[in-house]
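hiii so my PI (J.) wants the whole complex modelled not just the main chain, which honestly fair. so below is everything: two entries, each one labled with what it is. i double checked the lines twice but i was tired so who knows lol
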Amino acid sequence: MTFRKYLVLAGVTVFAAAGDSMLSHGMKQTGNISLHHLSSVLLAVLNPWVAVGIVLLLAFFAAYMNALSWADLTYVLPATSLGYVLLALVAKFALHEQVSPMRWIGIALISGGVGFVAGGPALTQHPHEHSESPPFDSAQGKLLAKDARNGAAADEAVPSGAER
Amino acid sequence: MKHLYTWSAILVIVLASVVGDILLARAMKQVGDCHALYRRSGLWAVVGRILSNSTFFLGVGAMALGFFSLLFALSWGDVSLVAPAAASLTFIGNAFAAKIFLHEKVDRRRWFAAVLVAAGVALLAG
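here's the output for the full assembly
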């Protein structure tokens, strides 16, 4: 695992949490959508919260695909479930919502799960066509960590504006 | 009877999401390490390689099916049951499916993680 890969996992987590909460906020402003008025879905896109939420979810998808290209599904999913914890903390400290003891237990369980999986290897399967790509860890780690700062924004299809 | 409908909807959502995740994970393993590919041949090579992979589109289709069935179920089902049940069962389903179809080594550590996260999600959203 290199610094850059941790950055991608963090991107998956943060973009998903931020995108979901923006969509949710925007959809509450636009009101109910019924099956009989599907055209109102198109109008919902005009809401700035919804629009930014969609851009963030696209960024999430790009980061998620990036992560799946070098890590197991059973690694990426638990590792990025910290987003749920993030949402609860935002609800508590930014939105001043009540977080029940049940939810704190949930947060503890998820964090425990993330800790478990993060201690193990990221990739266990061995795809046959893997020989093409050069081995990526320890030796090159420092080099990658350095150019992660320059290249992270331009990497993948993540729109660079979405981070701000 | 309403219970039956709700749980069938949850089943459809979970199946579609698991199939989608597995197909996307397989597609991205066929594409190969994005970082390495990006460094070798640039962004467009990565995008082109992903967009020319048919498994990727099947996966996106399955994910979309899962998403719309979730929306549909939420419109008449109980939100506090459908959302957490679907999310946490998807975690467990993915662990099984990844072991069987992607041949990932789901050891005790990963089972534990999947179960803990699934339980946590169920508590958080419940």
